[in-house]
Amino acid sequence: xxxxxxxxxxxxxxxxxxxxxxxxxxxxxxxxxxxxxxxxxxxxxxxxxxxxxxxxxxxxxxxxxxxxxxxxxxxxxxxxxxxxxxxxxxxxxxxxxxxxxxxxxxxxxxxxxxxxxxxxxxxxxxxxxxxxxxxxxxxxxxxxxxxxxxxxxxxxxxxxxxxxxxxxxxxxxxxxxxxxxxxxxxxxxxxxxxxxxxxxxxxxxxxxxxxxxxxxxxxxx
Length: 221
Ligand SMILES: [Zn+2]
Fold this sequence. Notes:
By secondary structure, this protein is an alpha/beta fold. It is built from 7 helices and 6 strands; from the N terminus they run αβααβααβαββαβ.
């Protein structure tokens, strides 16, 4: 009953088209948009990911970053839709919980954003995903293990080589001495060339960790 009242006051909307969902439909994508959400098979053996990356042990993704899912990410990141993070993290959990167990992950870490960007956006979209996911799968969450020391330019229009230069030394460990993790799961919202994740993985590997990554959406070339 209470749920019904809440649905009336705050009708749930489809994450893709923002259309109001029927009360009885408990999905996060409406009947129409659902058809355009393509899930990535966990056993795809890196076919979507950059083979030249060396520090990440294995990459994983949940959905294909197509024009429909782009709407979801865009609203989540730039539209002050912080609450999307929770439902998207639950989606990640549903598709990925078993793999976290298989790899014996001991900590979940979000890709950090620079404090300047945090100030503008108000939140780190990857941190909300990783925080909720880690809680759901009962694995430690550490958002302060690595930090972004350089405010890199937006990466979208850069070549792979330029991206790497751009990211050089932009991540640092906060505590080099006292905390060591064996198996880290890095979380980000979108996978494009993988260079951001590689940048993080490089310093984590140097500190003795084995690094796996999980992105909500993967841009398929
Ligand atoms: Zn829809």
